[in-house]
Amino acid sequence: MALDELKGLVLDPVEVQIERGPVRAFARSLTDGNPVYDAPDAPVPPTFPFVFPFWGSAGVGGGAGLPMDRLRARGLVLHGDQAFEYHSWPRVGDTLVGTSVISDVYEKERSDGSRMEFYVRTTTWIDKATGERVVDDTFTLIVMVTATAS
């Protein structure tokens, strides 16, 4: 069974300061050569909030704050889905604070007797200076559990 006790778990807040180097490197890794990402107050690329929980955690918490030690012990871990809802566009120099909750936990059985467990983490990113909501990030992690694992 999926770890239902994780549903509703509020994770520790994460604070990130958006820096020009990582924004530029991220855009280039996507082969996006738009010079806008070289500006001192560059906007972030559209999928850049994906890296916030990893970058801001300073290596603590692994998979975006999810309890990876417990999930990896259950089976193969995969990135499932990612969605962003922008309220304003973050830029280099902004400091954001993210508050995350594991908003859903569910599973689906596969025809071979194994199952897939889904853990959905929803993060609201707030501009630290203004208190305004900037972007909501929904991330789904999938754990492939073999028929013999529990």
Task: Give the distance, in angstroms, between the N- and C-terminal Cα atoms.
Answer: 7 Å
Total of domains: 1
Taking all Cα atoms into account, the compactness measure Rg is 17 Å
Q: Which overall shape is indicated by the principal axes computed on the Cα atoms?
A: elongated
Rounded mean pLDDT score: 87
Briefly note the CATH topology name: Thiol Ester Dehydrase, Chain A
CATH superfamily: Hotdog Thioesterase
Low-confidence segments, ≥5 residues, pLDDT <50?
57-62
Percentage of residues assigned to helices: 10-25%
CATH architecture: Roll
Short description:
It contains 3 helices and 5 strands. With 150 residues, the chain is mostly beta strands.
Care to describe what's here?
This protein has 150 residues and is mainly beta. The chain has a single domain (4-145), classed as Roll (Thiol Ester Dehydrase, Chain A). 13% of the residues lie in helices and 37% in strands. The protein has 3 helices and 5 strands, in the order βαααββββ. A hairpin with a 5-residue loop joins β3 (95-109) and β4. The chain is elongated and about 55 Å long. It starts with 13 loop residues before the first strand and ends in a 5-residue tail after the last strand.
